[in-house]
Amino acid sequence: MTFFSFQSDENGKEVFAVSQRWWWFLCATVPLTAGVFGVWVLWQKIRARNSKILEDIWHREQEDANGIGYSEGYNGTSSYVHSGSDSMRS
User: Fold this and answer.
1) Phi, psi of 16 (to 5 degrees)
2) pLDDT tens track for 25-66
3) Contact indicator for 4, 20 with CB cutoff of 8 Å
4) Which ranges constitute the DSSP H helices of the chain?
5) How many angstroms separate the CA atoms of 74 and 76, rounded?
6) Is 25 helix (H, G, I), strand (E, B) or coil?
7) Contact 62, 44 (CB under 8 A)
8) Which of 7, 8, 12, 48 is 20 to 30 A from 72 via CA?
C-alpha cells in the first residue's frame, strides 16, 4: 500500500491519487522529525558543554605553565592568583 500515487487514466492523463490513510504518514513523520530534532539539540548542548570543559582545562594548563594559578572563591566566583614574580613570566 502506498500513500501517494501518480497514475495514468484511460486518456493517458496523469492523476495524483492519495490513500484514505494518508494521515498515517503524518502520524509517523511528525513525531520522528521532532525526535530527531530533539536529539540534535541535546547533542549540540552536550558538545557545547564538553567544549567549554575542555577549553577551561586547556586554559588552566596554560596558566599553570605561565605561573598563574586558578582558585575557586567561597561564593563560586573564580579568581586568578599569580604564583610567581613578573620577571619569571615570558
Assistant:
1) -90, 120
2) 899 999 999 999 999 999 999 988 888 888 888 877 777 777
3) no
4) 23-65
5) 6
6) helix
7) no
8) 48
Q: How confident is the model at residue 71 (pLDDT cuts 50, 70, 90)?
A: low
Using DSSP bridges, classify how beta strands 4-8 and 68-72 pair: parallel, antiparallel or unpaired: unpaired
Residue written as cell 490513500?
19
What residue ranges do the domains of the chain occupy? Answer: 4-88
Buried b (16+ CB within 10 A) or exposed e, 76-87: eeeeeeeeeeee
C-alpha cell at 2: 502506498
For residue 44, the model assigns a pLDDT of 92
